[in-house]
Design goal:
The complex is a heterodimer of chains A (114) and B (111).
Chain A (H helix, E strand, L loop, with lengths): L3 E4 L2 E4 L5 E7 L5 E7 L5 E8 L2 E5 L6 E7 L2 E6 L8 E8 L8 E3 L3 E5 L1
Parallel strand pairs in A: 2-11
Antiparallel strand pairs in A: 1-3, 3-8, 4-5, 4-9, 5-6, 7-8, 9-10, 9-11
Chain B lengths: L3 E3 L4 E4 L4 E7 L4 E9 L5 E7 L4 E3 L2 E6 L4 E6 L8 E9 L5 E4 L3 E6 L1
The chains are: A mainly beta (114), B mainly beta (111).
């Protein structure tokens, strides 16, 4: 009954590979997000989707392509992985119409690019 | 200038101490404000929202000063379990369009 789930939890891969991270929420929220937390622990928003539509793209390289097949899912595909992509990626969901703007985070995917 | 600035700490305090964290934000279009808590190697979790009138939740008190663009969090009677990183969070625009996290303030509570 996990609210926001992500898979995989750990991902170790070589430079140049393509990988995907999946995210699902069962909270009935209409907005989902991807964040990147780097080695300095700074959490930065990458994308925001509302009702399957892209709302925010924070100047993320186009090697990163989010896909939202439905309101409950927001997946992140990364092409041609680079060393600098190593980080923890958090998915989150929230309900913009609720007036609270609270976001609920998944457990994170720790990506290591070798 | 960062959009949301916090003192990174770390704050090292004994159990039972009172500790205060400060945060400033630069965007006057900021609409809603929060404190999140992040434990080591875990996801951030909402600690409390911050309202203009100030609000309290048990040992935690949050204050907002819109004129000064300043947010604070006060923790009374610190517990060992309060050890974590506290993140100041600001939503810019209505409905949570853009969420900006501060870099966090680390707190260590020792016995």
């Amino acid at each position: 009954d996990t609210a926001v789930s992500q898979t995989p939890k750990y991902l170790v891969t070589q430079m140049g590979n393509d990988k995907s991270i999946k995210c699902e929420q069962n909270l009935g929220h209409d907005t989902m997000y991807w964040y990147k937390q780097d080695s300095k622990k700074f959490l930065k928003i990458m994308f925001s989707y509302n009702n399957k539509e892209l709302i925010i793209n924070e100047t993320v390289p186009n090697r990163f392509s989010p896909k939202s097949p439905d309101k409950a899912h927001l997946n992140l595909h990364i092409n041609s992985l680079e060393l600098g992509d190593s980080a923890v990626y958090f998915c989150a969901s929230g309900s913009r119409g609720s007036g609270t703007d609270t976001q609920y985070f998944g457990p994170g995917t720790r990506l290591t690019v070798l | 200038r960062k959009e949301v600035e916090q003192d990174p700490g770390p704050f090292n305090v004994p159990e039972g101490a009172t500790v205060a964290f400060n945060c400033t934000y630069s965007n006057s279009a900021s609409q809603s404000f929060f404190w999140y808590r992040q434990d080591c190697r875990k996801e951030p979790k909402l600690l409390m929202s911050v309202y203009s009138s100030g609000n309290e939740d048990g040992r935690f008190t949050a204050q907002l000063n819109r004129a000064s663009q300043y947010i604070s969090l006060l923790i009374r009677d610190s517990k060992l379990s309060d050890s974590a990183t506290y993140l100041c969070v600001v939503n810019i625009g209505t409905g949570g369009f853009k969420t900006i996290f501060g870099a966090g303030t680390r707190l260590f509570v020792k016995a």
